[in-house]
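Weekly modeling sync, notes
Attendees: S.R. (lead), two postdocs, one rotation student

Agenda item 3: backlog of single-chain predictions. S.R. asked that every request posted to the team notebook include the full sequence so nobody has to chase files. The rotation student volunteered to paste the first one in as an example of the format we agreed on. Action items at the bottom.

Example entry:
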Amino acid sequence: MGKMSSRRSRHSGKAKRPQATRPVSFVKLAEELAGIGRNFYERGWVLGTSGNFSAVVSRKPLRLAISSTGLDKGSLAPAHFLEMDSDLKIIRGKGRPSAEALLHLAIVHGREAGAVLHTHSVWSTVLSSAHAAKGGVALEGYEMLKGLEGVRTHEHREWLPILENSQDMTELARVVSKTLGEHSAIHGFLLRGHGLYTWGTSPQEAKRHVEILEFLMETVVRSHTLARIS
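Predicted structure, as returned to the notebook:
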């Protein structure tokens, strides 16, 4: 587990909680998430059928707009999204959600997130494999850290936990919930050899977190490579 740097961040130590409880339009969320997915494909973060995206439609009862499994994200459209309840039952749409839908639910419950985004970039795959034995990787000293919600200084130390990947989604969801409980201030985590999960109060905030974390992961990998060469 990473220890906080002696240089104190102005981060509050708690993830921002959403204030609104009114239902959001499923159609609007599906359109927004589809656009985000296509953008991520163009940036090389969700190639093939990798990645999945969700957003909260309502909390009582809980309903998620979530991408259907097995889709090419380069041609992702609103029609490719399902409305799902907390028991994984499909309320609207055709298809089935990814097996990782349980992880989305764990994050929504553990962080009261409004949106959850999952990418499979080269950088997250390399970094999660290289640092798995350490249980995570610390990101600090970068100005781009200020793009994470609640972070006000480059001296912030962001701990990015790395969890062992598994095909047992029930067990993996339990591990995710445990990790979120142990690290109250994190903005994301990695699955070893797999990819990044991050979240936000809205799809746009979650998108920003993906952009920031992907930038930082690429920077760390490239910096380590240059250090070895020199």
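Discussion: group reviewed the output briefly. The CA atoms of residues 135 and 162 lie 5 Å apart.
Action items: rotation student to repeat for the remaining queue; S.R. to check formatting next week.
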